[in-house]
Amino acid sequence: MILKTAKGVSYLQLNSLLRVADLRHGFFLREGGISAGDFESLNLSHGVGDNRRNVLHNRKTVSQAIGSQNIFYVHQNHGISVCVVRDNNGHEHCRETGKASAADAVISASAGVFPVIQVADCQAVLIADPIKKVVANIHSGWRGSIRNIIGGTVRSMTDHFNCRPADLVAGISPSLGPCCAEFINYRTEIPSPLWKYRISGTHFDFWALSQDQLRTAGLAPDNIDICQACTRCNPHLFFSYRGQVRTGRFGAFIGFPHRRPGPSISPPGF
After folding, report:
1. Which of 45, 180, 226, 264 could form a disulfide with 232 if both were Cys (CB 3.0 to 4.6 A apart)?
2. What was the pLDDT predicted at 87?
3. pTM, to two decimals
4. Is-contact 27 249, C-beta < 8 A?
């Protein structure tokens, strides 16, 4: 994991995804924006009570950092709907709901389009296909996780773009760690087959669950990377709903810029 700064904002990157040539990705920290109070400072969400102008300014800031004006947001609702971006203008088909505005995963094969997922304890799971030049960005909170939105998104990548799971490379964002992922009512909230991820008392390891879901979907273990940074334990770096409740959302982005000739994946050790 490395820290990068661009246009005055910082974001984390994972080694697995850095090996994919031309791919741009990152997990923004909470600093570098203009939001104040509970939303200080790089809040990207319009749905948490922040000033709309501040959010628009912050979104423009991350667009400049990414180097693209074609940033694709969706209305996340803790479901398992998947939007598939069809062209560089952001036209898409949203599986299950039929509405582009409501989805928790975005798949894009369009050069220059960068899907952004907003989180504050939930996982953003980034997936890239270095051969087909397809990316996915998944909002995997506990509700989506227990319904395996990760596996569903990988299947959609296969169905829509003939991606081979063995080619895919994935990274899991900073999120609620096993230290803080407590579910007091887990017996009614979490299906019993997933209780094996209970590490002690009422705490669960959702990092391990997501890793296993990626493996079950066909990804190679060496192609999966986890930030292993707990958002609740690091409120100076990330927004955390469990830690603050009224708070902002930081963003995770992924995408390929407009294509140019070159190898699909960098040599080992990049």
Report:
1. 180
2. 60
3. 0.91
4. no
Distance CA(202)–CA(238), nearest Å, equals: 24
Helices (runs of H) and strands (runs of E) counted in the chain: 7, 15
Mean pLDDT of the chain: 90
pLDDT tens figures, 3-56: 999 988 999 999 999 999 999 999 999 999 999 999 999 999 999 999 999 999
User: b/e per residue, 178-198, with b = 16+ CB within 10 A?
Assistant: bebbebeebeeebeeebeebb
100: pLDDT strictly greater than 70: no
Report the C-alpha gap between 102 and 92 in whole angstroms: 12
DSSP 214: H
Tokens of 70: 């074609």
Q: How far, in Å, CA of 210 to CA of 59, rounded?
A: 28
Q: Which two tokens stand for residue 251?
A: 């963003």
Residue 269 CB contacts under 8 Å (≥ 6 apart), including other chains = none
CA atoms of 30 and 87, how far apart (whole Å): 30
Beta strand pairing status for 2-6 and 9-13?
Answer: antiparallel
Cis peptide before 41 (omega within 30 of 0): yes
207-242: b or e for each residue (b if 16 or more CB lie within 10 Å)?
Answer: bebbbbbbeebbbeeebbbbbebbbbeeeebbbbbe
Q: Where are the beta strands (DSSP E) in the chain?
A: 2-6, 9-13, 24-28, 71-72, 82-85, 92-95, 105-108, 114-119, 123-129, 134-140, 169-172, 198-200, 203-204, 224-226, 250-255
131-184: pLDDT as tens digits:
999 999 999 999 999 999 999 999 999 999 999 999 999 999 999 999 999 999
